[in-house]
Amino acid sequence: MSFDFGGTPLHGVIWFHRDLRTSDHEGLELAEKLGGSWLAITQLPRAAHEAARRFATECQDELESSLKSRSIPLHRLNEAEIGDFIRNARTANPRLLLLTSRRYNFRDQAFLAGALSGFPESQLRIFDHSTLYAESDLPFSLSALPRTFTPFQKKIRSAKTGVRAARSLPPPNPLDPILATNRGFEFKGGEKNAQGRVHQYLTGTRAALHYHETRNGLLARDDSSKLSPYLAQGCISPRQVFWELERIEAELGPSKGLDALVYELEWRDYFKFLSLQSGGLFFESKGLKDHEPEANRDQEKFTRWCRGETGNAFVDANLRELLTSGWMSNRGRQNVASYLAKTMKLPWLWGAEWFEKNLIDYDPETNQGNWLYLAGVGTDPRDRVFNPDLQATMYDPDGAYRARWLS
Q1: How far apart are CA 89 and CA 96, in angstroms?
Q2: What is the pTM of this model?
Q3: What three-state secondary structure class fits 219?
Q4: Contacts of 168 (CB under 8 A, 6+ apart)
Q5: Alpha helix locations (H) across 159-237?
Q6: pLDDT of residue 306
C-alpha cells in the first residue's frame, strides 16, 4: 500500500490516539514549534454501537477541521493501514519524527510496537496526554505501584505531586452537548462540545458542586458529569478538567462534589498505571489474583444478559439503556457486572467485551479495571456481590428508571 505525501518535504507525523484535541496537546505544540510540514493520523472508530461510532466520528471530524486550519491534513486509517503509512512516510523522509501518546495496556502497546517496527527510538516522542499525572511525576516507580487505590491516592497527595499546568479553556459555550431524548442520553462529540460540557456542568448549572450527592442518579442529565465520553476520546484532557475544578473551588469555596470529581480522575489514573504495570494480566480471566473465578460458558444465558432479558428488572433496565443509547450510569454498570459475574456466574471477560463494543465512553483501562474489581479478581480485597433488588430500592425507589426502560 502506498501513500502520496505531496511535494513538500515531510518533517513528521502526529499519531492521535485517544487525544483528539488541539488544546493542551504537547505533541501538536512541539510540531508547531519545530515547524515544517506535518501530517496527522488516527484510527477509524471500531465500536459496534451506532451511537458510539457516531460520537467517535464527530470527534474526528472536529479534529480534522481544527488541524486543517493549521495546514496539517488528518488521515483516518484502519489498523492494517497505519504501519504502511508510517513506513511510507519514513521512506519519504528517513529522519521523520513521530509524535504520539503513551499506551497504557498491552494490546495497544503491542499494536504500537508492530506499527513502528524498525522505527528509530530517537525519532519517537511519547507524551502523557491521557492522564492527570505523568508517569515521571509519580512519587514511586511503576514497579512499586500500590495494589489498591487508597494507598496510591495517599502517596500521591502526601507527596504533593503536582498536576502539570494545562491550557485554559476558551470562554463558555452556551450550548450543552448532552441531550435527553426518548432513546436516552445523546452526546455530541468533539473538542468544543467537551469544553461546553465542562462549562455547563461546573459554572452553568453548578451541578458539579453537588456531584457527591447526585452521582448515583439514573435519569437526570446532571446527576453525573458525563465527561467520560470526552475524556475517553481525549477531546479534553484530565488536567484541563482538574484546573477548572480548582478554579471553581477558588471562586466558590470547597465542595464535596468538587473533591469527589478529583477523586474520580485519580481513580482513572490509577487504572491506567495499574494496567501499565500488570501487562497482559489485565485481560486474563484470573486477573490480578492467583485463581480463576467460577464461571460457566452458557452462551444462551449471556445473550439474555446482553439483551436485558435476565428477569431482574433493575439489571434489565440498565442493559436496555446501554443497548439503546450506548450509555449506562456507573451505578448501573456496577450492578450488571456483578450480576453477570457473581449471580449468573458467566465469564467476566464476556461482559467486558460487550461494554467495549457498546459503550460510548469505552476506555480500555477503566473498563478492564472496573470489571476486574467487580469480578473479584482485581484491586478489591473483598469479594463483593451487589444485590440489585436492594440497589433498586435505594436508587430507583419510585421505579421511574425501570419503567422508563422496561415499558
Answers
A1: 7
A2: 0.96
A3: coil
A4: 240, 243
A5: 191-199, 211-214, 228-233
A6: 98
* Cβ count within 10 A of residue 56: 23
**Gap between the Cα atoms of 213 and 224, Å rounded:** 10
Residue 5 has pLDDT above 80, yes or no: no
- Cell 465527561, residue located: 227
**In 10 A of CB 204, how many CB atoms?**
17
DSSP for 270-285, please give it: HHHHHHHHHGGGGGST
* Pure H helices in 279-347: 299-307, 313-325, 330-338
Average pLDDT over residues 111-122: 96
The CATH-assigned architecture of domain 130-281 is: Alpha Horseshoe (1.25)
351 in Cβ contact with 310 (< 8 Å):
no
By percentage, how much of the chain surpasses pLDDT 90? 90
Q: First CA to last CA across the chain, in angstroms?
A: 51
Quickly state the pLDDT bin for 334 (edges 50, 70, 90).
very high
Secondary structure class of 237 (helix, strand, coil): coil
Work out the pLDDT band at 182, boundaries 50, 70, 90: confident
Q: 80 burial class (0-12, 13-18, 19+ CB within 10 angstroms)?
A: exposed
Domain positions in the chain: 10-129, 130-281, 284-406
How many whole angstroms separate alpha carbon 247 and alpha carbon 208? 13
Q: Name the average pLDDT for the chain.
A: 95
What is each CA distance from 345 to 201, 342, 350, 366, 382, in whole angstroms?
Answer: 38, 5, 11, 22, 17
The whole-number average pLDDT for the span 357-361 is 98
Nearest to 235 by CA among 68, 403, 42, 7: 42
Q: Which helix (H) or strand (E) holds 16?
A: strand 10-16
CATH topology of domain 284-406: DNA Cyclobutane Dipyrimidine Photolyase, subunit A; domain 3 (1.10.579)
| Phi, psi (degrees; rounded to nearest 5) at 313 | -60, -40
Q: Are 313 and 402 in contact (CB under 8 A)?
A: yes
DSSP letters for 103-161: P-SHHHHHHHHHHTTT--GGGEEEE--S-SS-GGGSSS-GGG--SSHHHHHHHHHHTTP
The domain defined by 10-129 folds into Rossmann fold (3.40.50)
- DSSP code of residue 84: H
